[in-house]
Specification:
Layout lengths: L16 H17 L3 E2 L5 E3 H9 L3 H6 L1 E4 L5 E4 L4 H10 L9 E10 L11 E10 L4 H18 L5 E6 L5 H13 L8 H9 L10 H9 L11 H16 L5 E2 L11 E8 L7 E5 L3 H4 L7 E7 H10 L12 E5 L5 H13 L4 E3 L6 H10 L4 E5 L1 H6 L1 E6 L5 E5 H12 L1
Parallel strand pairs: 1-5, 7-8, 12-13, 12-14
Antiparallel strand pairs: 2-4, 3-4, 5-6, 6-11, 7-9, 9-10, 10-11, 14-15, 15-16
The structure holds zinc ion (ZN) (2 copies).
One zinc ion binds next to α9.
């Protein structure tokens, strides 16, 4: 029987890996410019971390985790998302002791047992950022701006930031009580999920895709949480929007946007593009650090799906492959050119010029064909006659121009030509 990869996983082959490297380079560049630092945490953690840090009423924890007992009978779980591990590391390593705001980012594989579909895998990959130690609305604006800037940097189009505030431990219980009061008489008319939500987490009724549930919500005249915020939350949310406006970050208020858990507070956002599901999402979580055993510390962060971003990019006709071409192809005209060709390759590569040659004994003509296929900018021909004249024959494949360049100037000329 032929071995196959597990369902919901993918092999990244040469040609695809380069897209991932470029995407990661864009994320790193944009976040480093804002003074974020990379953090790497384990791919598996104690199961309890996710039960507490993601919430055991969520679909992720109740239905989708890869949980198993290790050989020491400890329950461990392949991480289904990145935030819980980062916050655990922040607490365990006492990063809060630095007295400054921690600005962190990460990449890596995440695991969820879901039905695989377009852009959705069981081993999928995310990049994300977390800021711990500030509740200033300015940091919300910074993080939202960065989450959008990354997608723009990748080349995605028609992006919308959908923004909302989900309140805090002061205003949410009031709203929750109101929801329970107005919806309990209609409980039997709600879908099964919403009946459960009404008990555990009424705010998530706004998330229901069922039209009947949404109609019941409207008829019961249940206000959106953002319309009944406490004064502190109102002031905070107004400031976030004011900063986004002066920073020229476009956004749209989306009052039905919610985050399920109690420690999610205030700002919540998702970035979408018409015809696609959410590409990146984020939120403030002022209760999470405490939930995981640290001192009360406000936090905010976002995550984006790498497979999803690349899929949307492809669907929109974009590509990250601008720099994939070869700078120089060294063609060996005859046996006499072999040694010098290797010296020239070493010299070019030593300068960071992307250079290659044929190692299969092709004729000169088919070496040119290969250079074409590799999208080489220059073909450098080296053979007996070039050695005698002391000059390489260099053809620019973009404009067809051919020149003789003395060997000592070869690397300089090519370097200038490609910059
Ligand atoms: Zn509040
Ligand atoms: Zn429902």
């Amino acid at each position: 029987m032929e071995m196959q990869r597990p369902r919901g996983t993918a092999d990244l082959l040469p040609g695809q890996v380069e897209d991932w490297q470029r995407l990661e380079a864009i994320v790193t560049k944009i976040l480093s410019a804002a003074n974020y630092q990379e953090i790497r945490t384990p791919i598996f953690e104690h199961t309890e971390l996710f039960e507490r840090g993601v919430g055991d009423t969520t679909d992720i924890v109740s239905k989708e985790m890869y949980t198993f007992e290790d050989r020491g009978q400890r329950s461990v779980t392949l991480r289904p998302e990145g935030t819980a591990g980062v916050v655990r590391a922040y607490v365990e390593n006492k990063l809060y002791g630095t007295g400054t705001v921690s600005k962190l980012f990460y990449y890596g594989p995440m695991f969820r047992y879901e039905k695989p579909q377009k852009g959705r895998f069981r081993q999928f990959h995310q990049y994300g950022a977390e800021v711990l130690g500030s509740e200033k609305p300015a940091i919300d604006a910074e993080v939202i701006s960065l989450s959008l800037r990354i997608l723009v940097g990748i080349g995605l189009k028609n992006l919308t930031v959908e923004l909302n505030s989900v309140g805090c431990s002061v205003c949410r219980p009031v709203h929750r009580a109101l929801m329970v009061e107005r919806l309990t008489p209609h409980k039997d008319e709600l879908c099964q999920d919403c009946q459960n939500r009404l008990e555990k987490n009424p705010l998530r009724l706004f998330d229901c895709k069922n039209d009947r549930c949404q109609a019941i919500l409207r008829d019961a005249d249940v206000p959106y949480i953002v319309d009944v915020l406490c004064d502190d939350c109102r002031t905070h949310f107004d400031a976030v929007q004011r900063y986004l406006k002066v920073m020229d970050v476009p956004f749209r208020l989306e009052k039905g946007l919610v985050r399920g858990l109690d420690y999610y507070t205030r700002t919540a956002w998702e970035i979408t593009s018409p015809g696609f599901t959410t590409i990146a999402a984020g939120g403030r979580y002022n209760g999470l650090v405490e939930e995981i055993g640290g001192p009360p510390t406000p936090g905010i962060g976002f995550a984006g799906g790498i497979e999803r971003a690349l899929w949307v990019l492809g669907e929109q006709g974009g590509t990250l492959r601008s720099s994939e071409r070869l700078d120089a192809f060294v063609a060996v005209a005859d046996e006499g050119g072999e040694g010098t060709a290797m010296v020239v390759l070493e010299t070019l590569r030593g300068r960071g010029i992307r250079a290659d040659r044929d190692y299969q004994g092709r004729s000169l003509k088919s070496q040119f064909k290969l250079a074409d296929r590799l999208q080489a900018r220059y073909v450098v021909v080296i053979g007996e006659s070039e050695l005698q004249s002391g000059k390489a024959t260099v053809k620019n494949l973009d404009d067809g121009e051919q020149r003789e360049i003395p060997f000592p100037q070869l690397a300089d000329e090519i370097e200038q030509g490609i910059r």
